[in-house]
Structures are given as C-alpha cells and as structure tokens.
From TrEMBL:
One Gene Ontology term from the biological process aspect of the record: phenylacetate catabolic process
Protein name: Phenylacetic acid degradation protein paaA
Record gene name: paaA
Top-level taxon in the UniProt lineage: Bacteria
Gene3D superfamilies assigned to the protein according to its UniProt record, in alphabetical order: 1.20.1260.10
GO-annotated cellular components: cytosol
Lineage per the UniProt record: Bacteria, Pseudomonadati, Bacteroidota, Flavobacteriia, Flavobacteriales
GO molecular function: phenylacetyl-CoA 1,2-epoxidase activity
NCBIfam families for this protein: PA_CoA_Oxy1
Ranges in coiled-coil conformation: none
C-alpha cells in the first residue's frame, strides 16, 4: 500500500475500517494502544471493587457497582475493537492480548497501581481518574480507526456519569464533618500527581506521539491534554474547598493557563517497570481470577458445542 496515500487519506479525516488496507505500523500502533486501553479498563475495576462491600449506603453501593460494570463493558468493546485488527501478523485476539497483560508484557494505565485506602479515594478516582480519562478519550473519539472511534463515543458518555458520581461523593464529604473533609483532602493529595501522570510522559519524552499524530490516532499531545485537565480541575477543587498539593500551582495571566510543578517521573517509571505500590497485587488478582473462573468459559464452550446443531 502507498504510505503517502494512506497518510493523505487519514489526514483528510477519513476513517479506516477493519478490512481496509493499512500500513503494518499503523496496525501495530493500534493493537498496542487499544489493547492497553482495554487492559486499563479491566484492571481499573480492582481498586474500586475494594470498596463495594464497604460503600457507606445502599445508594452509593448501587452507583459504584454500576460504574464498575460499565468499566467491564468498556474493556469488552475495546478487546472487540482490538480483534478487528487481527490479520494473523499481530497478537490481536482477545486471549493473546489478555495473556500478554497477565504475563506483564503489555501495559495498563499506571493509575491503577495505587491502592484505595479510604472511601474518599473512590470519590477521587471518579473525579480525577475518570475526569482525566474523559479528557483523553474525547480526543480519541476523533481518531482515524473507525471501530476505536465509535467505541469511544459510548465510553465517554458513561465516563462522564462516573466523573460526576465521584465529584458528588467528594462534595458530600466536603460538606460533612471536619474529619470527612480531611479524608477528602488526603484522597486528593494521594491521587493528584498520579492522575496527572495518566496523560503519559512529557511530549519530548513520548516516543509514540509523532507517529500517532501523523496517523491521526492521537489528536492532541500528552502535555496539552494534561494542561487542559489542570485548567478545568483547579476551579473544581476550589469549589470543594480543597487544596491542590502543589506549591508551584499558579495562574499565569500571560499564558492563560495554570503553571504547575514537576511531576514525579521516577515514580511513574518504577510503576511501568512493575514496581508501583500495587502492580504485583493487581496482576496476581487477575491471574487468580482467570484460574478460578476457567470453569465458566469451559462450561460455555461445552454448552455451545452441545447445541451447535440444534435448530429451533
Ligand atoms: N500508564 C502506563 N503506561 C503509560 C502511560 C500511563 N499513564 N502513559 C504512557 N505510557 C506508556 C505508553 O504506553 C508507552 O509504552 P509502549 O511504547 O511500551 O506502549 C510509553 O509509556 C511512552 O508513552 P507515549 O509514547 O506517550 O505513548 P502513547 O503515544 O501511546 O500515549 C497514552 C500514551 C496517552 C496513554 C495513549 O496510549 C492513549 O491515549 N491511550 C488510550 C487511553 C488509555 O489507555 N487510557 C487509560 C486510562 S482509561 C481508564 O480510566 C480506564
């Protein structure tokens, strides 16, 4: 396939569909990113699932359960979108992609390697983590690969409910007792920097960005999305009466944006190497779940086999 023609095609805002011709590195870039994104959705269920049995009321428990189920659904759309890229040259089928994640060969978002220590962390995850995810995923609604772009539309709608339920948890805590407000502040202190790191390394240290932008997968850079996130989130923190844990955070009149401090990139790199606070626990939980629930898959396959020739 003519590479320049393909670039012209995607840069003119046309969509690529599964059976279309595409350069191998475009296919590989998509399999890498979409499968990592799928892994993030399913690993992301774990820190929140930690609080299902301890949610403070039935209403909170129902909302949390619904949100976690949404994340499972997002994982399924994204594994399905990854599979549409399977042409035998890449590991795009669901089992291979998932096994790569369990073996520690494929990444998932760094944010899910942090523990959830209090109920306020569930609020902070909805507000900050889902808030950051939306910022990135609204951009991805316009990406050049049709199945990925379409999956993003529904995912973004659901993520915006997640963001609101998180913010509302924190609003309730911030209007509660002194201890509840302090719990909210501690959660913000824990999740602020990890949430900013979700957008990935700085632009000058992001090896995939240029190609991804040329192929119209990424539409905005890591730093520009991070800046937008800071700009919209600071006033939300002020409304809650919480303090962002960054002494260098300051409105810059000239730039029309907030300036903020350096991110703890060493911590990010350690997480990527598998040494974050909860990396090992997350992977072990998923490995155990796969073993313990293997019988469900086997039963479903046996059932399908048994009735394959039966017509109704
Ligand atoms: N956590 C873990 N790994 C990360 C993160 C992160 N927050 N940010 C970047 N990386 C990895 C990249 O995957 C890449 O590694 P690889 O080359 O081995 O795949 C490396 O760091 C360098 O980063 P970039 O060159 O900037 O990578 P890329 O262009 O793919 O940009 C980004 C990273 C922005 C995360 C992009 O992949 C993306 O938009 N992904 C889809 C959205 C997504 O996965 N969101 C996860 C959270 S969604 C949720 O809340 C469930």
């Amino acid at each position: 396939m003519d590479h320049n023609k393909f670039l012209e095609y995607v840069q003119a805002e046309n969509k690529v569909e599964p059976k279309d011709m595409m350069p191998e590195d475009y296919r590989k870039l998509l399999v890498r990113q979409i499968s990592q994104h799928a892994h993030s959705e399913v690993v992301g269920m774990l820190p929140e699932a930690n609080w299902i049995t301890r949610a403070p009321s039935l209403r909170r428990k129902m909302a949390l359960l619904a949100k976690i189920q949404d994340e499972a659904g997002h994982g399924l759309y994204l594994y399905a979108a990854t599979e549409t890229l399977n042409d035998g040259t890449v590991n795009a089928d669901r089992d291979s992609a998932y096994s790569d994640m369990l073996a520690g060969k494929a990444k998932y978002s760094s944010i899910f390697n942090y523990p959830t220590l209090s109920w306020a962390d569930i609020g902070a995850i909805g507000w900050l983590v889902d808030g950051a995810a939306i910022m990135n995923q609204v951009m991805l609604m316009g990406n050049s690969y049709g199945p990925y772009a379409r999956a993003m539309v529904r995912i973004c709608k659901e993520e915006s409910f997640h963001q609101r339920q998180g913010y509302e948890i924190l609003m309730t805590l911030c209007r509660g007792t002194k201890q509840q407000k302090e719990m909210a502040q501690q959660a913000l202190n824990r999740f602020w920097w990890p949430a900013l790191m979700m957008f990935g390394p700085n632009d000058d240290a992001s090896p995939n960005s240029q190609k991804s932008m040329n192929y119209r997968v990424k539409r905005e850079s890591n730093d520009s999305l991070r800046q937008r996130f800071v700009d919209v989130t600071v006033p939300q923190a002020e409304f809650l009466g919480l303090k962002i844990p960054d002494e260098n955070l300051k409105w810059n009149e000239e730039r029309g944006h907030y300036d903020f401090g350096d991110l703890p990139w060493d911590e990010f790199m350690e997480g990527l190497k598998g040494n974050g606070p909860a990396n090992k626990k997350r992977l072990q939980t998923k490995i155990n779940a796969q073993k313990e629930n293997a019988w469900v898959k086997e039963a479903a396959v046996a059932y399908a086999e048994k009735f394959k020739n039966v017509t109704t």
